[in-house]
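Supplementary Data S3. Sequence and C-alpha cells for construct A.
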Amino acid sequence: MKMHSYWLDTATPFANAMPGGPEGVADVAIVGGGFTGLSAALALAKKGASVVLLEADRVAGAASGRNGGMCNNGFAQDYHGMVAAMGEARAATLYRAFNAAVDKVESIVTEEGIDCHFQRVGKLKVAARPEHYDKIARSQALLAKSVDPETRMLPRSELRTEIGSDRYFGGMIYPRSASMHMGQYGQGLAEAAARHGARIYQDNPLTKLTRVGGTVHEVTTPHGSVRANQVLLATGTSRVGPLGWFRRRLIPVGAFLIATEPLPQELLDRLTPHRRNTTDTRNFVTYFRTLPGNRLLFGGRARFSSSTDPRSDAKSGAILRQSMISVFPELADTRIDYCWGGLVDMTQDRLPHAGERDGVFYSMGYSGHGTQMATYMGSIMAEVLDGRADLNPLADRGDWNAIPGYFGTPWFLPFVGAYYKYQDWVR
C-alpha cells in the first residue's frame, strides 16, 4: 500500500517551474500554488499582467492534490438552515456562486485542453438516518423553487438504482456536479498559467512580507524577493510565513482517503451504477467516487486531527476501510492500494472568505469546497485585483473574526470530534 496521494502519484509533474528564486518586479505576486493561486495566475496572465507565483513545496501538492476529487455544487451545510441564518437572497447568491464554480472548472479544462477526466457525473447526498432524509427534502424544496430546479429527491425505495448498499435512507441528486483527476488538473492548471506567461517558483516559501505603500509589497523567500504592485494570499492552512492573522481564523482539519485496487466493471456497476460523487449526512462525513482505472476512492473525516503523517494516515485508513465495508460488504476482501491524508482549511461558518486586509488581497478557508470554489475564486480575485471588487460573491459578510483562544494550534479538535461523534450517535 502506498502512503501518499493517488492524485500526485499518477499525475504528470509540472515541468515549467522557474529555477532559483524570484527577483525584480511584478504586477502581482501570488503566494500559494494550489487551485486558487494557479487559477488567479492564469486569469491575470491572460489579461497581460506580469505574475509571479510562489509555492512553498510543489504546485497543487497540498490540499489541492490530496482531496476527494469531487467538483460539487451545493453546500455541505443544510440549505434550509442557510436561508434561515442569512436570508434567502444571500443564500441564493452564494449557492449560484457554487454553481458557477463548477462551470468555471469545466471552461478552464476545455479552453486550456487539460486532460483530467472531467465528467458531469452528478452528486448523490445520502441520508445516514431516516430523519436526515426529511431535512434534505426541506432544503431540496427550497432549491427547486428558486436556484436549482434540477435537483431531485430519491426515496429509499429507489436508492438501489443509484448505490449498491442498504446502509442509507434515501437521498438527493445534484446533476450539475462533476468529478475529475485532481493531480492532472492541478498540474495542467500550472502548465496553462506558465504557458500564458506566469512565472511559477516551487520550493519558495514566503518568509517576509513588507508593505512599501498602498498595495505595493516586497515579497521575500529564502531564495530571493520580488516587489509587487499587488499581493494575493492563496495559502490555505499554511504554517509557513508571517500569516498569523489568518492562522487565527483557519482551522486545519485532517481529511483522509483510501483507494482500492482496480475493481471488476460488473462490481462497480452494482455498487455505483451512475458513478455519482456520493457523500453522507454525518458530521463524521464519509464520501466515495470511482477513479480512472476502476478504483473506488473512499474518504472522510475518520478522526478529528490536525496532523497528517504516514502513521496518522494509516490509523485513519484502517477506520475508513471498515466504513467502506459497512457500506459495501462485497469489498471485505478488496486490497487497498493507496492511503493518504491532507489538511482542510475550515472556518467557523464553514464558508470561504475573500477580500483585502492592510493592502493584501486574500481568498481561503474553503472548508471542503476547495476544488470548484478555489478555482472560481482565483479567477474572481483576478478581477478584484483589476478593480472589480463588486464581483466578489464573498464580500460584505461582516468581520472575519478570530477564534477566541486560538493561535494556530487547534487544541480543541479532540473535544469537537467527541461532540460530533456524540451527535452522529444520537441523531
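Construct B, processed identically:
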Amino acid sequence: MTQSVVPHRVVVIAPSPVSMFNLAIPEMLFGKVVRDGRPGYEVVICAAEPGPVPTTGGLDLHVRHGLDAVRDADTVLVAGTGAPFEPEARIVAAVREAAAAGKRIASLCTGAFQLAEAGLLAGRRATTYWAHAEELRRRYPEVDLCGDVLFVQDGPYLTASGYAAGIDLCLHIIRTDYGAAAANQVARLTLVAPVRPGGQTQFTQTPLPPERGTACADTRGWAMRNLDKPLALSDLARHAGVSVRTLTRRFHAESGVSPLQWLLHQRIERAKELLETTGLPMDQVARESGLGTADSLRAHLVRRAGLTPSAYRAQFSRLGTAAVETRGMKPAA
C-alpha cells in the first residue's frame, strides 16, 4: 500500500534587498514536483521583518511570514541580495539555529555570506556568484571557496553561484529527495536544461556568460537519442561536422564540461530513470543507458550516488520491489 507523501517544507529567507529571480527559482521548480497526486514540496517565503521587502529591481515585495517559519522547515534556503550584501543578524541567528536543529541549509548567490557569517561554512567547500567570490574569500578566509563551480554540497550545506546556477541547485535537491526521474520531469516542465553534473565536478575555467550558445545542441539531442549506442568522441564530432578539437572546445564553452563527461553524466541519469520507472534487470538497464554491463552500472552509480543499483531502486522506484517481483524478476545487486 502506497503511503501519502508529506510535502517537504522549504522555507526561503528573503534578505533585503532580495533578488526576485532568486525567489522565483524555488517556487517555480519545487512547485512542479507532484508525488502520489500531492505536492512534493511546500514553499514558504519569510523575511527578518514581515511586510514590504525591497528587491534589487526597485520594487517592494510583501512577505507575510517572519523568521519563525524557519523552525518548521525541512530545508532552509537563503536567497541572494544586492550589494553591499551585509549579513543580517536576525537571519544569521535563524540560520545558525536551523543548522543546530539538523536542517538542510542552502543558499543562492550572495546568500552564502549569511551562511558564512553563521559559521556554517568554516572548513567546508562553498561557492557564490563569481563577481563576489573574492569579497567572500577576504571576509571569510576559513571557507574553502570554490569560485569556479555552479554549486557545491558539503554535508548538509549547499551553496550555488549566481543566476541560473540556482536552478541547478534546486534540481539537485529534487533529485536527492525524489530521484532523477522527478528532477528530469521538472526540468522538462519548466523548459530548462536537464540535470547537469553537480558542483563538485562541473568546473568552469572562466565565468560563464548568460548565453552559452547552441552550436552543439543538435548533437547533444542526437546523443541523447542514442545513449544505448557505443558513442565515441569521433562520432559526436562527425555528427556536428567539425573536428574533435573544435567539438571539444565548443562543447565545453556551452556545457561547462567535456563531451565525454557530459555523455557519461547523461548515461548515469538515464540509468537512474530506468531504475526508478521500470523493473528491467540490471544488465538491461546498463545496456539501454550505454553503460555496458551491470558491473559498470554498479561502479558508476556507487561513485556518483553512493548507492548500488538495487539500493537506488529500492529507495526511489515508483514500482517498488513487489512490482518488480510480479514480473518474475528479483532486484539484482
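Residues 198-213, 319-333 have pLDDT under 50 and may be disordered. Residues 211-333 form a domain with the Arc Repressor Mutant, subunit A fold (CATH 1.10.10.60).
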